[in-house]
Request: fold
Amino acid sequence: MSKKQLIMEKSLDLFARQGFEATSVQQITSYCGISKGAFYLAFKSKDELIIALIDHFMKQITMDIDYTVRNTNKADTLYYFYHTLFTAFLKHSKFAKLLMKEQTQPLNEELLSKMRYYDNLVDQSILAMVEKTYGHKIEPIKYDLVYTIKGLMNSYSTLFLFNTLVLNVELVSKSLVEKTNILANHMSVPFITTDLIKSFKNEVEDMSKESLAELLSQSIEELDESIEKESLLILKEQLLMESYSLAIVKGMLENIRNHPDCKWISYLLRKYFQL
Reply:
């Protein structure tokens, strides 16, 4: 385990017990058994550490949801969306609970910006899922449905995180599919229109080809010789020259999807190639 990973893992225990504000860098270094110098080699500040933790947690949720929405059959997408979400909450329940609790506290602008960024990405995936599942028939109410689904996600997540209930992922997923279908089939008074969305929602811009190429180069440089590295090289060539079929590109993305150092670039490239 790298020093950076150690700090992130150990600090999460302290943050969960004491909160972000009440936990000092000194407490973190003592708990990790490292010097302050070692901490500041990994992170410039406690805020940077917190943002790194949020990055890690939100990237996992965002990537898992996006992959599920893109790669399940139309009839099963809604169930597996909820299943993926609550499985992720079980896996990362300690940090999810901390994040929900800390949202009631004053947060700095960088932290708020980071959370809004991932919130917008998740909204995009939910919208894609709604359109895939219900088609044009829900066009007038699709944004209301997106926000209703988010309300179900948040309320049920809170229910399980802050109570002693056992989370049966299969049952809650089936139950929420039923509720979502009822809403989709019977809502008739839209509140959130396209114009309203545009007035308060900032669009998340996809990463440019140049930025993706730079990120690919960094990832390639950091990896030892492996299937993942070869796949990244092919993907970079495809990005710059479009040399391969989309079937090959999809195969290369599958090769890197589960590698811990490649998961985010895999997600970004899937969005770029629209796979």
User: Anything to note?
Assistant: The chain has three domains: 3-43, 48-200, 209-273. The chain has 14 helices and no strands. The chain has a mean pLDDT of 86.
